[in-house]
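#struct-help
A.M.: can someone run this one for me? Single chain, 180 residues.
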Amino acid sequence: MKISYSLKIAGLTRTLPILRLGENLSIASFVILGDTELVATAAPLLAKKLPPADLLVSAEAKGIPLVYELAKLLGMKRYIVARKSIKPYMGHVIKDEVTSITTQKKQLLALDESDALLLKGKNVILIDDVISTGESLSALQRLVESAGGFVVAKAALLAEGDAGLRDDIIYLEKLPVFKD
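D.P.: on it. C-alpha cells below:
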C-alpha cells in the first residue's frame, strides 16, 4: 500500500497521506484548513461552475475556508455554516444527524434560528471540501429544506471514490479511495 497520494488540483500539487479507515479501506487525507494558496486558487474555478443562488451553506469545519472564499467571489454578503454542536446563544435550532466516512460515528449538524430565517425561500448551494458518500450533504440538504430553503446545487473541490460517478454534484477533481 502506498503511503501518500499526489493530488493535482487547480494547477497545484499536494502530497496527501494515505490513512486507513477500516480493515479494507484507506483514503488520501485532504485538509484545506490552513492551505490559503489552494483555496484562493481553486475557489475561482469552482465558482465558475456554480449556478446562481442566494446563499451558500457548508458544515463546520473543513468547508469554512472554501465557502468564505466562494461567497466573496460570488459577491454574497453572507454564507451559513451548520454547526457541529448546539451553543447557548443559538436559540431555537434545526438539527440533523450524519455519519460520514471520516467521522465514522454519528455527528450533529445544527442551524440556529437566525440562519434558518435567512434560508426561508432562498436558493442555496451546498459547499464541502470533499464529497465522498454524500451523507454530510444529505444532512445539510435536510436542514436547508427544514428551514424552507431550496437546494439548487451541491459542490466541492473533490469527489472521492464513487462520488466521481455522480451527475448531481459539481467538483473540480476526483480523489480515489483505496481498497485492499
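A.M.: thanks! The mean pLDDT is 90.
D.P.: also worth noting: Residues 35-173 form a domain with the Rossmann fold fold (CATH 3.40.50.2020).
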